[in-house]
Amino acid sequence: MYQTENREIKALEAALAENDAFRVKTALEELYPAQILEHWPKLSAEHRRVVLTLLSPPDAAEVFSHLEEAEQAELLEALPPWRVKEILEELSLDDLADTINAVEEENSPEAAQALLRQLDPETRAEVEELTEYAEDQAGGIMTPEYIAVRDDMRVEEVFRFLRREAPDAEQIYVIYVVDAEEHLQGVLTLRDLIVADPKTKVAEIMNPDVIYVRDDTDQEEVARLMADYNFTVLPVVDEEKKLVGIVTIDDVVDIIEEEATEDIYRLGAVESPELVYSQSSVWELWSARVRWLVILVITGSITSSILQGFESVLAAVTALAFYVPVLVGTGGNTGNQSSTLIVRALATRDVELRDWWRVLRKELGVGFLLGLTLAALLSIKVLLDGEAQLLAVVGLSLGLVVLIANIAGAMLPILLRRLRLDPALISNPLIATITDITGLMIYLSVARWLLGLGI
Fold first, then answer.
1. How far apart are CA 430 and CA 332, in angstroms?
2. Which of 174, 87, 110, 101 is CA-nearest to residue 136?
3. CA 274, 278, 279 angle in degrees (round to 5)?
């Protein structure tokens, strides 16, 4: 499979290099949209336009729907008008709404309106309704292309209805039941219909206990709910419990990837959750990283002030400086570990806010055992260095540093969640800076106390 794909990609590259449209089209017919997307970053801007122009309309729409919003907006300006119209017609309503929003943000409201005018009135009305929702809400990721039937319909009537409506639906395996006013009443599957008597009414075979979300539910909560219940589709209702759309598993996969990427970037103190490295300029990469680094440099400069404040202690026992890197480094690593564990636990709902006392007690125990283990290990190094007079200072300091860093790393994400902020804001560099400052204070204060070096 890999060799075949590689050969087809090389054929596409050669055809693009020679500007041979017939060979490009032939090569594209042998590739799946996923294969084209995998190779997409290696294509030049001109070649990307050619590929989208020569792909079949369904494949072009599939590739287009997975591109970054900024690139979608650029391509819609560069592609021939006839191809733009074909892509718009092939896109699902939720992807179409996302595209319109992208064009409005990246280009202008006028450009977005121009695209909307190319749609038929019914589609335009549905898309405009979807664009009113925030992108991170259930309404912003749902599609109105679902199958809903009345509770008083018979099974044989449902099958006739499905034959007529199935071509335009996002999926037909899960069917929702509504009353005359479109209120969600129940759910049934295609299997339920197949095994039921044709004369049976839908109300008799539907499951009335439907798991659903409101249209203003956060997308992260939607993804968690679908993962917890192993759903492939989830209904969305408005404040009156009227069915307005469904969220499908393909959208949830995108959400999970988006949220995970955002959390990873934040843990690394990178500010742009939508950053794509291969498509980012040096300036964009600089701007995504510099702000936090400036903050960390400023806060980190406090460590130099601490060292100046304990200058007399370091001057009296120069060997104390030998162990500063290992103490602050170990504290930072410990805090990073605990914060990462708690941020993830909060994200998966393994830990709730009410569990803070249980987390504190557990991390006190973990921190104590980690501190004891690491202090014993470093004490061996102190003895081997011939600095026996510093044994108690280094050992006690490292134990305290690890204990406090472990508790801080665990409690700060919970505190942020309590303040209704994203726990992932507790980045690894920030934890490291905090533990550097507290670690130095602890170490040099313990040294002054145990070695009797004065106030």
1. 9
2. 101
3. 65
Backbone angles phi, psi at 245, to 5 degrees: 175, 180
51/29 Cα distance (integer angstroms):
11
Tokens of 388: 């026996």
CA distance 54 to 197: 48
Neighbours of 182 (CB within 10 A): 16
Could you give the strand order of the β-sheet that contains 184-189, starting from the edge strand earlier in sequence? Answer: 148-150, 174-178, 184-189
Amino acid at 296: L
Cβ atoms within 10 Å of 453's Cβ, excluding its own: 17
Whether the CB-CB separation of 331 and 438 falls below 8 Å is answered with yes
CA 168, CA 303: separation in Å to the nearest integer?
Answer: 63
Bridge partners of residue 201, in order along the sequence: 154
Beta strands in 179-270 (DSSP E): 184-189, 213-214, 233-237, 243-248
List, for residues 137-177, the tens digit of each pLDDT value: 899 889 888 899 998 999 999 999 988 887 777 788 899 99
d(CA 343, CA 330): 20
Residue 222 phi, psi dihedral angles, 5° rounding: -60, -45
- Pick from 182, 176, 170: nearest CA to 145: 170
- 149 SS3 class: strand
**Integer Cα distance of 103 and 73 in angstroms:** 5
Cα 17 from Cα 321, distance rounded (Å): 61
Nearest to 325 by CA among 231, 426, 401: 401
Residue 276 has pLDDT above 50, yes or no: yes
Cα 104 to Cα 254: distance, rounded to the nearest angstrom = 22
Inter-axis angle of helices 391-418 and 356-384, nearest 10 = 160
User: What are the residues whose beta carbons fall under 8 Å from the beta carbon of 52, sequence distance 6 or more?
Assistant: 60, 63, 64, 75, 79, 83, 87
Tokens of 172: 């037909």
189 phi/psi in degrees, rounded to 5? -110, 165
Side chain identity, residue 124 = R
Q: Residue holding tokens 């665990």?
A: 410
Beta bridge partners of 313: none
Strand, coil or helix: 216: coil
Instruction: Judge whether 190 and 208 are in contact, CB under 8 Å.
Output: no
Structure-token pair, residue 231:
């759903």
Question: What's the pTM?
Answer: 0.63
| Token couple for 276 | 């794509």
pLDDT at 4: 45
What tens digit of pLDDT does each residue of 229-259 get? 889 899 999 999 999 999 988 888 877 777 7
